[in-house]
Amino acid sequence: MVKEIIQKGFIRLTPQKTVGFSLKEMETRKKSVAVVVDENDYLLGIVVKADLFRFLREPGHYEDYPVELAMTKSVITVKPDDDILKAAKMLRENNISAIPVIDDENKVVGIIGLEDIVDYCIQKNSLT
Questions:
Q1: Residue 100 is inside which H or E element, if any?
Q2: Of 113, 48, 125, nearest in space to 84 by CA
Q3: Torsion angle of alpha carbons 80, 86, 92, 94, nearest 10°?
Q4: 128 has a pLDDT exceeding 60
Q5: Taking the mean position of all CA atoms in its chain, how far away is CA 74?
Q6: Which SUPFAM superfamilies does this chain map to (predicted)?
């Protein structure tokens, strides 16, 4: 189950946070992905460092722009009780590196990435 590998120490951003703030937060916390949520933790979007760098390369885009202009709004998600293999397939099929985990109310409760799945597989196979 996804809940076995969920990462709860993920970066939460509000849509008004700037692109510059978001990049600094990712760098400081050594993360490459952040979820964008409202004040009640409802998922609004997701952003990865590569999205932010692509955004900044566009003429007229600046670090003080809100992150909501650079985020992906159509987000693929999983639930805590979903199968890890299902999550892995979703990551590969959609060529993404991380996926938010949402509860039944669509609130973000965590995130999982390819590294988490690989670590889980290594740990599981080293116990046998």
A1: strand 98-102
A2: 113
A3: -70
A4: no
A5: 12
A6: CBS-domain pair
| Per-position b or e across 70-102, b if 16+ CB within 10 A of its CB | bbeeebebbbbebebeebbeebeeeebebbbbb
Number of domains in the chain: 1
Q: Is the pLDDT of residue 34 over 90?
A: yes
Q: 54: domain CATH number?
A: 3.10.580.10
52-92 pLDDT, tens digit per residue, is 998 888 888 888 999 999 999 999 999 999 999 999 999 99
User: Which CA distances in Å does 68 have to 8, 18, 79, 81?
Assistant: 22, 8, 24, 29
| pLDDT in the model for residue 59 | 85
- What is d(CA 94, CA 17) in angstroms, rounded to the nearest whole number? 26
The CA distance from 87 to 98, in Å, is 9
**Which pLDDT does position 123 carry in this prediction?**
84
Domain around 56: 2-126
Which spans in 37-113 are helix H? Answer: 49-57, 84-93
